[in-house]
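Working notes for the structural subgroup meeting. M.R. asked for a predicted model of this chain before we commit to crystallization trials. I am recording the input and output together here so anyone reviewing the notebook later can reproduce the run.

Input as submitted:
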Amino acid sequence: MMTFFPRISTLVLALGASALLSGCATGPNPRDPYEPFNRKMFAFNDTVDKVALKPAATAYKKVLPQMVQTGVNNFFGNLADLWTGANNLMQGKGKDGMTDFARFGLNSTLGLLGVMDIGSDVGLQKHNEDFGQTLGAWGVQSGPYLMLPVFGPSTVRDAAAIPLDITADPWAYKEPVYIRNVGIGVRAVDQRAAVLDASNLMEEAALDRYEFIRDGFLQRRQSRIQDGGGKPKLMQMLNKEPAPDAAPAGGSIKSAYPDDPGPTGGAAPAPTGGATVTPPAKPISSAYPDDPGPTPEPKK
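Returned structure, recorded in token form:
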């Protein structure tokens, strides 16, 4: 029996391929050349959300105590820490990856299968990484914006990574299957409930919700891949160049003579323009201690 996620992933790949091969008219935004197709998928998702997901999330938030909602969120977040840790390691972020695995071990035991987030209480920071971000850290370009059915905003690169993200989800192997599917539904409702207030505000404020979601998603996604910086950390590590040799402290000029203490009154400032200062030549000593040295010739 096929589960919910494999059916959806097959649908995503089929629709994504049809979008790429159908030659949709290029829109005014170069990041969104498939805008006509994406707007249709946005309208479809919006209908599904209004008819099913948003009402379920509203009831979920009103009926269940906050403690139960937090426990559900922590449980599925704990399972996600495993794949997050693997992606952090693949991105060259070893410390973050080890933190994710430590969180999973601690929360799965002392945290009662992840219902309690003990890891955060002891200072183990939570991360959120997926294989799409890993591909971005490896230098794979995002490609055009792509609105997926049910899954929502994405890009061509991130859509291609979804099947592997699903395969790496520990809950995808939960038996029996009906318990697995119930958990998938509960997780979707919990995630929708978490952004319920923000979505209500966005619906009231945004003139074009499609553009608002698209631009916000692309900006946030790029920031997450770059970890808030200009390049992904892995690319920074691979392209890192050795720092130039540091100048002597204080910019002082070291004497050419090891026993010369240098000018009195502190170190001299470094010359500007990189010019090399040649120390004055010392007088040539005579081989005889009593010899006063050569007598200067009188001027003519």
